[in-house]
Specification:
Elements (H helix, E strand, L loop, with lengths): L5 H14 L6 H11 L5 H22 L1 H10 L5 H26 L6 H21 L13 H12 L8 H11 L4 H22 L1 H4 L4 H26 L4 H23 L1
Helix pairs in contact: 1-2, 1-3, 1-11, 2-3, 2-6, 3-9, 3-11, 5-7, 5-9, 6-12, 7-8, 8-9
Length: 265
């Protein structure tokens, strides 16, 4: 795979760094940009979209370095945070791996417009879920149950599908499990680390073919933007109706895809 234009790589990193913290599916946004603007094939766009998470993964690790270090140093399975991450990660693999294999090896040459239509529909679904799920309590870390971890992990696995927001689906699920918003945000961020690492490892054969220059620029730009927008966007997210944003964006993407399909027919 040849080197992409540097400005495209930087733009992709910026999109990833911003969209990762919002329930609008960063993978959908980067794939949409690559397939529609850059004219990149579906499979290549999927590989790059997965790899882009390495930059925001690095931002999460830097942000929560002490918590991750504590988990690795003591690895006490009776510790609530450790137990939550382990169970959720295993559950994520149960749903994510089969879906990834279907995307990677059975959906080989989907037309860009069709993929865009799917992305639009899934964004609308995410928005609807954000609207209908309401906080019913403020369960703390000490009150988390193994079933909470398993359910959120299974839900997180579906975010391998372009258009299903990982942050959106984990927040919706955690809140539906009566977990307080602040803890839900922290868990959503921390659960992303093993999930992203697993996705990169399972697609490593193709990711390893990404040119070093591309990889460095993508990771650096996504990390810098993601790290510095994390707090800003979280504070902003509390002031706006993100379900409206997700639905509007989904309708826009779906409408454009349908209009272009009609024109091409």
């Amino acid at each position: 795979k040849r080197n992409m234009e540097t400005y495209y790589l930087v733009i992709l990193g910026i999109i990833q760094g911003v969209a990762e913290w919002l329930p609008i599916s960063s993978q959908a946004q980067t794939m949409f940009f690559m397939m529609d603007i850059m004219k990149v094939p579906f499979q290549t766009a999927l590989t790059y979209a997965i790899f882009l998470h390495a930059g925001t993964l690095l931002a999460v690790v830097v942000r929560y370095w002490n918590q991750f270090l504590d988990i690795l140093k003591k690895f006490d399975f009776e510790d609530k945070l450790t137990r939550t991450i382990v169970f959720a990660t295993i559950a994520t693999a149960i749903t994510a791996v089969p879906l990834f294999l279907i995307l990677k090896y059975y959906i080989l040459e989907l037309p860009a417009l069709f993929v865009n239509a799917i992305i639009g529909v899934l964004l609308i679904v995410t928005g609807v879920l954000l609207k209908i799920i309401k906080p019913k309590g403020a369960k703390g870390l000490e009150n988390l149950e193994d079933t909470d971890s398993i359910v959120v992990g299974l839900a997180q696995g579906f975010s391998i599908l372009p258009g299903i927001s990982r942050s959106g689906v984990t927040l919706v699920t955690l809140i539906a499990r009566n977990i307080g918003p602040e803890l839900a945000l922290t868990l959503s961020f921390m659960l992303s680390a093993p999930a992203v690492l697993g996705a990169i490892l399972i697609d490593f054969d193709d990711i390893s073919k990404i040119p070093v220059f591309n990889a460095v620029v993508l990771t650096a730009s996504a990390f810098v933007v993601g790290y510095f927008t994390m707090n800003i966007l979280l504070k902003y997210a509390q002031m706006v109706k993100l379900w409206v944003f997700a639905i509007v964006l989904g309708v826009l993407v779906l409408s454009v895809a349908i209009i272009l399909m009609v024109i091409m027919v």
